[in-house]
Write a sequence for this structure.
């Protein structure tokens, strides 16, 4: 990535997809060039949480909502300490921030963190293209990075693909830290950080859980050194087929029958730990309006998603695994993608979406209570 931290809202910019299609617009944020996987998010709110979600590492996010940035940026809402998206694509950026919590504009934040973006393009046409052709590599170019389309296309095609990418250690904490329980401490949880969002340990802390957030490289011995009542595996970026170390650690947790909860990447890790495969979705699920059914209750939830890979597990039967019987607990009603797993003979479950959902919706917040119930049952 080559950037200038001087924003240039009227400077020409071009977005080039690896299949050769190009979209021309104006620079938004930093000026220069950036590369990643082109994906789209359907959320109409919560752009600050999206930008700072570590799961978007090495991805260029296209916002389907046409008007972005009207509430500005503050220092309370980020899910991590920095913006993780590789690039940002919007149709109509707000000229003025108009929210009482705003401390600066979104454009200023993108410039200060060196995020190259583009505005003024037909994001609806781009989204339709990605739905039809699938997520693909992309580059955004502005300022001195502009060149003829053939040269830019060659640069895009030289960049690595998301399949086979091992990224969780790049975004995870390097040092363990503790998020204390709010109020009376009831439980201790070891959280393996594969790209954890800040709201996740907060949701647990609200329930009296002291959360020890550990690096993605944490060993099974380091997990149990905190004497956990439960173990959590977080969301994160990259291809789950590369995550051999987290899979091994999770299998050790399953062997010990410690209550276990996984979110997003953690769901894929559980799938692999149980012997299921994973695969790349054509264009993934990203946004805050995905309908998911909890098959144990029949309840349909509107949920927040950010995943380009999924677990390949049978929907129509209970599966026998090395750790007892397992079944698909949640399913996406748009496309029947596996959205959750649970073991029937051990205290372990996971979901593919985000029940912490800082920007909403909050339909799935009960899953943290389900985790608490598992720990209560184990203690009893």
């Amino acid at each position: 990535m080559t950037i200038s931290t001087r924003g240039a809202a009227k400077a020409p910019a071009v977005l080039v997809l690896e299949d050769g299609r190009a979209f021309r617009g104006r620079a938004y944020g930093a000026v220069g060039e950036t590369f990643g996987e082109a994906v789209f998010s359907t959320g109409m709110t919560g752009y600050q949480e999206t930008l700072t979600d570590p799961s978007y590492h090495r991805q260029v996010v296209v916002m389907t909502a046409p008007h972005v940035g009207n509430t500005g940026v503050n220092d309370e809402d980020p899910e991590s300490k920095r913006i993780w998206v590789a690039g940002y694509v919007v149709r109509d950026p707000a000229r003025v921030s108009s929210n009482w919590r705003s401390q600066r504009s979104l454009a200023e934040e993108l410039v200060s963190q060196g995020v190259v973006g583009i505005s003024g393009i037909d994001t609806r046409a781009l989204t339709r293209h990605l739905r039809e052709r699938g997520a693909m590599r992309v580059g955004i170019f502005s300022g001195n990075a502009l060149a003829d389309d053939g040269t830019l296309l060659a640069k895009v095609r030289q960049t690595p693909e998301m399949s086979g990418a091992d990224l969780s250690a790049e975004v995870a904490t390097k040092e363990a830290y503790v998020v204390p329980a709010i109020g009376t401490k009831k439980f201790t949880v070891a959280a393996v950080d594969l790209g954890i969002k800040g709201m996740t340990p907060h949701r647990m802390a609200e329930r009296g859980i002291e959360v020890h957030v550990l690096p993605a490289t944490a060993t099974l011995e380091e997990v149990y050194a905190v004497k956990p009542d439960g173990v959590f595996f977080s969301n994160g970026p990259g291809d789950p087929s590369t995550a051999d170390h987290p899979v091994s650690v999770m299998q050790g947790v399953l062997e010990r029958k410690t209550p276990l909860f996984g979110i997003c990447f953690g769901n894929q890790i559980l799938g692999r730990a149980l012997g299921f495969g994973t695969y790349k979705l054509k264009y993934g699920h990203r946004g805050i309006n995905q309908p998911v059914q909890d098959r144990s209750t029949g309840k349909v939830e509107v949920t927040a998603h950010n995943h380009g890979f999924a677990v390949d597990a049978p929907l129509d039967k209970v599966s026998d695994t090395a750790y007892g019987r397992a079944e698909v607990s949640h399913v996406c009603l748009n496309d029947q993608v596996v959205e959750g797993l649970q073991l029937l003979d051990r205290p372990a479950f996971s979901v593919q979406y985000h029940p912490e959902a800082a920007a909403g919706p909050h339909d799935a917040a009960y899953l943290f209570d389900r985790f608490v119930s598992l720990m209560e049952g184990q203690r009893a």
The chain is about 20% helix and 35% strand.
